[in-house]
Structures are given as C-alpha cells and as structure tokens.
Amino acid sequence: MRIDDAVVLDLHGVTDKTAFINRCVRTLPLPVWFGRNWDALADCLADMREPMAIVVTHWQAYAEAEPDEWSIAQEVFSAAARASSAGLAVLLSLGGDPAGLEDRTGAPAQGSDDSPAPPAHPGVGQ
Question: Which alpha helices (DSSP H) does the chain contain, by range?
C-alpha cells in the first residue's frame, strides 16, 4: 500500500451524518448492499480484500458542526483499521493538499446528491 494510491475522502461541504455517509458511498469502494449506517461502514471497510489507504481531507467543518458524529466516524475508521486483514490505513489531512491528492474538478460523481464544490480562487494556495 502506497500513499500515492490513496483514496481521498474529501469532506468539503459535509456537516452531518447523511452527507458524510453519502460522500463515503460516492468515494469509497463500498458494496452495493452497504447499509448506510456506522456499523455497516465499519464492517465494509474492515472486509476490503485489498490494502487501502484513505486520506480524509476537509473534515474540520464536519468535526465542528457535529462533534459527536465526528467522534463516531473516527471510532468507525479506527475499528475498521484494527479489524482489517488486508490492511487499512486512515489518515487525516491537517491542511492543504501536500501530495496533490484532491480531486480538483469540484464536480460530484454522477448520481451523487452532493452539491458541487465552489470554484477555487485563482492563485490561492498555488
């Protein structure tokens, strides 16, 4: 497992559990039968057949808006990483985009109920 191959879970705009779960569905390789709840997320992540690194970005607004939910999300990631036989690493990005990992299109995946990210400001962070 290499950080270059990481799946980026960008939580920009996520401020509640429903949006968090929807973003996980859109971004992570979860099975179609995924139950859209905390236990199902932990089980599905732990049962991945291949090693995976997940880099969680822009999580701070969710953590501030719903600290109890964010605490549960962290517990879910931690439990899944401990239980994973294939190897799961979940990393929290503390700011910026150090490895150029984020999707810069700002467009949600087809069928997503996420709204598009606001356009980047030219010259900012470049």
Answer: 17-27, 38-46, 60-65, 67-83
Q: Give the distance from CA 6 to its chain's centroid.
A: 11
Q: Are 39 and 72 in contact (CB under 8 A)?
A: no
Which of 6, 12, 7 is closest to 108 using CA atoms?
Answer: 12
d(CA 41, CA 87): 16
Query: Which residue bears the tokens 């979860």?
Result: 30
Tokens at residue 51, please? 């090693």
Residues in the chain: 126
Rounded to two decimals, the pTM is 0.74
Per-residue pLDDT of the chain (126 residues; tens, 9 = 90+): 555 589 999 999 999 999 999 999 999 999 999 999 999 999 999 999 999 999 999 999 999 999 999 999 999 999 999 999 999 999 999 986 545 555 544 445 444 455 544 444 444 443
Q: Is 118 helix (H, G, I), strand (E, B) or coil?
A: coil
